[in-house]
Write a structure and sequence with these properties.
single chain, 3-stranded antiparallel β-sheet, about 5% strand, globular
Amino acid sequence: MKRFWQAVTVDADRVVRLDDRPVRTPGRTPLSLPTVALAEAVAEEWRSVGETVDPRAMPLTGLANAAIDRIAADPAPFADGLARYAESDLLYYRADSPPELVARQDAAWNPLLEWARDRYDVHFTLVTGIMHQPQPDATVARLAQAVVALDPFRLAALSPVVTITGSLVLALALLEGAAEADAIWTTAHVDEDFQAEQWGEDYLAVEAREAKRREFDAAIRFLRALQN
């Protein structure tokens, strides 16, 4: 789509408007945001459009579209998909060697699991290796309850955080302010960073990681704007 508008504004209902027209989601619903801060952040993406619209350069708009079109009508299935990460969270699975990696995992991951234990009154089964081990039913249920309670916009933003980090615990810690975004990112990449130190970095892996970081950062901006 070519740019056809001059001015981008936010109306009293927090709908982003292009001149006198409301922006609509792919499902043709007006793009109405829950906070002024988020509406302004999305509007800024539209102000930054050049001659043509590039959805890849508009991640906040994409997350808002997902919240409205894919999640809002029936949030439960989407929430259930994220909640399933409670069964196989990154932080459960530990290396048995070398000692340096074991120590790094313990130092980075144990404090977040301790936070989750206290916050949700749950217990975790830690595993050495990659073979799946079931977690206590109560743990899975309580973490799932925390996800199901979220509104569609927070679910939309939490999704890339969960899938990129491989950890529901890290995503919930971020959402509840138990850890900062940069710390969450570093914690999720302990294994990857260790391997890069040992064997060097592949440029394709670096590019993929940079793309994931951009997606992660967009989700963080989206969540912060929901709080204002």
